């Protein structure tokens, strides 16, 4: 693909362009596939994220609540609710799959990291220790639901992966995708008015930078019909309230605990509507830490 566009930020010799061809922001040139493969099979959970599994485990109760909510949202759009076949691409520690299994869905995960794969196996989850690839899908059936949390921002030429996902969904099937919501209005405000550097730019790990608009267009260009959008807590609120957690992982953790406490109160049965109305309002203003889209593969 002949990518081109205005350079919007440069970091450590890597430049991010507003690509006119792809329609979203990405590192250009993209890193080579081999270095990416090594990062996620061997290095990611060991070196790049040494405490990652431990931290995620500390948050297990909250993650399960978050994913139960997401599964209920997906479920609203699933036509045949009996024996729902779900594929989670980049299933990590397997908590989405656990929540899906609890819902009675038939779970399959794909996870290249050996540490995360072993952790999932210990929870008796059905996971392939591989990348989601052309070769792997030869062995896989078609799915009613495909879920992908925080993967697409790591993948060079994400259009290729979206084509594989499209092929692996049943007609009428649901694709739920979540990525960081980058260059969002709160972040831009913090850079412009509060002297922050664009701290969310991390070109070695994140090669793509999406927002609600660009991800919606990308899914549309790949044949999906986007039917709903949602988000997670806008973490930048802490920065705007004076909790300067950028570069301070301890304070970052504290802010994360506050957001968990807030969400755990809202996730209770009687308050879930309050949470959903609030977070949908954030999403429709382009705010919230994640872009979460629910899309359908049309039947015809
Ligand atoms: Zn491009």
What does this entry look like structurally?
It is built from 12 helices and 11 strands. The protein has one domain: Rossmann fold. α3 (60-75) crosses α4. A 7-stranded mixed sheet has the order 6-5-4-7-8-11-10, sandwiched between helices. A 4-stranded antiparallel sheet has the order 1-2-3-9, with no helix packed on it. The protein has helices at 33-48, 52-58, 60-75, 95-102, 114-121, 134-137, 158-168, 185-194, 212-221, 236-240, 249-266, 272-284; strands at 5-11, 14-19, 25-28, 85-89, 106-110, 127-128, 143-149, 169-180, 208-209, 225-230, 290-296. With 300 residues, the chain is an alpha/beta fold. Bound molecules: zinc ion. Zinc ion (ZN) binds at residues 1, 3, 19, 21-22, 26.
Distance between the termini: 28 Å
The CATH architecture designation is 3-Layer(aba) Sandwich
User: In CATH's first tier, which class applies?
Assistant: Alpha Beta
Main sheet makeup = 7 strands, mixed
Radius of gyration: 19 Å
Each distinct ligand: zinc ion
Helix amount: 40-55%
The tally of strands reads 11
Name the CATH superfamily classification.
Vaccinia Virus protein VP39
Number of DSSP helical runs: 12
Strand content: 15-25%
**How would the global form be characterised?**
globular
Total domain modules: 1
Structural class: alpha/beta
Provide the residue-averaged pLDDT. 93
